[in-house]
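Hi there,

I know you've been waiting on this one. I reran it after we fixed the sequence typo, so this is the corrected version. Both the input and the resulting structure follow.
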Amino acid sequence: MQILVNGQKINLTQKNYVTKGGEGQIFKKGKVAYKIYEDLKKMIPAAKIKEYEVLDLKNIVKPKDLIYDLQKHEIGFTMDWLGVDTVALCKLFTNSFRNNNNIDNDMIIELVENIKKTTQHIHSHNFLIVDGNELNYMVSNDFITPYFIDVNSWRSPSFQATAIMPSIRDWTTNNFTALTDWFSFAVVTFQLFVGIHPFKGKHKEYTKNDFKKRVRDCISVFNSSVSLPPTTRDFNLIPSAYKDWYYHMFENGKRKEPPQLPGTAGVVQVQVYLIQSTDNFEIRELKEFTEDILYHNSNLDVTKTKGKIYLGKKDYAVSPGVEVIFTPIENIPIFVKIENNQVKFNSLTFPNPKINIECTAMMIVNNTLFLKNKENLMEITFKVFNGTIHPIIKTTWNIEPNSSIFFSNVIVQSVLTKTYLAIPIPNYDKSSFIIKAIPELNDYKIIDAKYEDKVCVLTGHKGSVYSRIIIIFDEKFNKYKCRIVDGIDYSTINFITLANGICVMITDDDAVEIFSNRIDKDDVKRIEDPVINSTMNLCNDGVRVKFFKENKLFEIKMK
């Protein structure tokens, strides 16, 4: 595709393609992003782009230069490219992401204050955000700097807003003002502190779909009749001034700007949950650690906690982002981490392996390391000779350089509006790399994904609705079946596939789903049990189901 920007001809190819947005396609070249509209009737007017010039904060990703086709028709605009070191703000709602990335409450307070200051800057220039939902923010990799995206939908001094998500809308008014922006800000930032939408939780007189009515009736999570899910964090994490502001905003319906100073956070109460067997499940505690568990791998006897990696009975202090891998023959552990776009190795027994590879993402699949190097996916193996461990590039596959996103055991990539799953399957002799087009995913923005033994579970959103997509492949990956559950609450994907092909999943509404990884089996068994909830992180040991919660590891069996 050839375009014109400031009179210069620019060629955009598939290698420049990033993703499909709500209104068009996004490309990237150098430090510039290019948004090309599919429906030119939705194209932002040039006069509106001009009005954005007064917003001079770098974390506002605003339209810059108009893009023309070769016939000099307006077809889009340019923006600054954010880079790969940002994440969707909604990920910070979940306990698992916060724990895995060592995000503490002080960082959340600073992030919230930075969102507030940027919003005040926007309002000072007579702009309204209107659709300040969690999907319209990205966050830097230090987790304190917010980036405001999709700003072309804002209300400017001369143009109306063009979108709003229902979950952050103030349903007590039909108008959009600075105060409705602050209501949206309150909804999103409340979730950053405690992980639940202020009008979610269960109330006997309201259904899950009565969101608008609860906003109008001021029945929030502060109401004593609302029961909260176990994943909800302690309200004492909310600084005192904000806590009062949230209470009056949600429970009393009082609309005003947020406090100038956040106040101090209270003392978090340590809650003790008794986990015991039920009529449906037999639960047995296996082990207790000194720190909260991040993951457990029974096959390798590895447990990672907030500050350590346990290898059997030995433990090693590690910094955030460090993972462990073992040499394939000698079973020698090596710590691995990406620093400054370079992979770094640390051996416990040999001189540190050295390899000069630029990489922006890594993934460990079945004790095999994969690195993203621009348009290459590299499989790394290790050989030991002459008293040294040598990392070797075993195999290289091509992937899309800008649209490929690494998740758990799977890569999601786009090829000109079509979505593909790329699944590396390592093998000691010859590894394989499955690339499969999944048309059902084309209209979704994928936020999270996990693959395990022919089963891939994804979380995506289409507009304002989150969905869970379950894909099951046949043995040769020629065929698949797809099940989609719309209207879920955003949560961490929590499922495993056992050695016998049985899949176990804990859903966002704290139910257990049990199904097969065989494409010819359609049965899904759903069990609701008061003890089971999404704070129980599933892991497996062959055909045994394990889970960890906080610093304890358990085994669970059906009765």
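Quick highlight: The longest strand covers residues 388-398.

Best,
R. S.
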